[in-house]
Here is the input.
Amino acid sequence: MTQRQRDLGARRESGTITLWMLGLCLMLFLLGGISLDLWRAFSERRSMAAAADAAAVAGASALDEAAYRSSGVVRLVPADAQRRARASLADQLDRRALRDARIEASEDTVMVTVGGSVDFSLLQVVAPGDEFAITVHATARPQASP
Here is the structure.
C-alpha cells in the first residue's frame, strides 16, 4: 500500500469518530431523560400513595361512638368519614401531581382513590404535551382495640 492510498483512506474516514460520539451523546441524553422522568413519576406515585393512605386512615377514625358505647359494634359515620378524609387530603404538603380524589365511605370501610399526572421534563423535546397518569387506591377499616 502506497502513501497516497493511505492518505485517501484516512480522508474517507475522517469525521467518523465525531459522528459516533454525537450519536452516543444523543442516546445518553434520551436515556437520561427517560430515567429522570420515570424517577419523578415513581416519586410522585409514592407521595400520592402516602396521601391516600393517610386520608383513608383519617376517614376510618370517624367512629359512631354512640353505637360503640351502647352495643360494642364498631362502625363508621359515613358522612363524617368522608369529611375527615377530604380534610386529610387538603392538609397534605406534597400535592403537585394530585388532580382529583374520590372518597367512598360506608359503615364498614373508607375507600380513597387519588388520581394525578406528572409532566415529562427532559422528554418534552421528544414528546411534547405528554404526561404520566397515576392512580392510587387506599382502603381502611375501623377495628376495635383488643
